[in-house]
Write a structure and sequence with these properties.
Length: 312
């Protein structure tokens, strides 16, 4: 059963596959969406570069620099905090390596990609002798487009969802999608679903379904709202780097909330702390401090200029 339902919205999506085959080679929608997200991000960034008087061709070079490090960063971040899932006794080097490089079923962490992207941008800006803060502002718009689209890869993979809910946006996934041969207790013990999901299984048309928060949808919509805010504000920014700081603040704020709903969060080993939630909170705090400081500096500059104009 490949259907996905949003029963409280009256939506039924039939036969939602996670990919297709071409001459026996399986192609995942997740990868296609990521690639299309990069393309759309570049188109938007290129237009923003032209609007702000930058060389738009510079950003084509930048994308070529960025693609592989961003994917590697996202993957490495994920593996570091899922170490036990990949490095298991008796598994063997070959099988471990295959699991590490296989990203067709997901396993990419957004913050890992962002960290890698910031490092690449700093190096690129220095090499090309351009402003890093201005680049960061321009790129933040494309970054949001990529994240808005990328989360729909999680939808097709039936991953990155939250705990049980019967709210308006509740998403129902058939239990047999995860394993046709496992019972609920088996799925709980293996960590595929939670005990709360198992205790609140929904029966539709004689089949068992779990009802969960579609956190991928929440994040996609949150990022869309953040993108609209930045697009409306960009002509009024007070200093280069402000849009990127607003992105860090806004995305971090949403991630703190949304990550708390998820059941598949990457955790700090030995501690009951969600890695991305902690990092998001740090981003909100740091961005807040810098924004306030920069705003105060800007206000002081404007005030001093006004005094000079009056004296003249």
């Amino acid at each position: 059963m490949l259907d996905i339902r949003f029963p409280n919205l009256g939506i039924v999506l039939k036969n939602v596959k996670d990919g297709f085959s071409v001459f026996g080679f399986e192609i995942k929608f997740y990868g296609i969406i990521i690639a299309f997200g990069f393309l759309m991000a570049y188109i938007l960034v290129s237009k923003e570069a032209k609007r702000t008087g930058q060389d738009d061709e510079l950003y084509l070079d930048y994308v070529l620099w960025l693609v592989i490090p961003a994917i590697l960063g996202a993957r490495v971040y994920y593996i570091i905090f899922s170490w036990k899932d990949y490095f298991q006794a008796g598994k063997g080097f070959k099988n471990t390596l295959i699991d590490i490089i296989n990203i067709r079923n997901g396993g990419l962490a957004v913050y890992g990609g962002i960290i890698a992207g910031v490092i690449v941008t700093i190096i690129f800006a220095r090499k090309k002798k351009v402003s890093f803060p201005l680049m960061a502002d321009t790129i933040s718009i494309g970054l949001l487009i990529g994240q808005i689209m990328g989360r729909w890869g999680n939808f097709f993979n039936r991953e990155a969802f939250g705990e049980y809910t019967d709210s308006l946006f509740a998403m129902c996934i058939p239990v047999n999608y995860f394993s046709a041969n496992s019972n609920l207790n088996g799925l709980v013990s293996s960590g595929v679903i939670t005990q709360k999901m198992a205790e609140n299984v929904v029966t539709i048309d004689g089949m068992h379904w779990i009802s969960v928060h579609p956190t991928f949808l929440y994040e996609s919509l949150w990022n869309l709202a953040l993108l609209i805010i930045i697009m409306l504000y960009r002509k009024h920014k007070k200093f280069d780097g402000e849009l990127f700081l607003i992105y860090l603040w806004g995305y971090g704020l949403g991630r703190v909330w949304i990550e708390g709903l998820r059941t598949d969060s990457l955790m700090i080993s030995g501690l009951n702390i969600r890695v991305s939630q902690l990092l998001a909170a740090v981003c909100v705090l740091v961005a807040s401090v810098i924004l306030v400081k920069k705003r105060m500096d800007y206000a002081e500059i404007v005030s001093n200029k006004s005094k000079v104009d009056v004296d003249e």
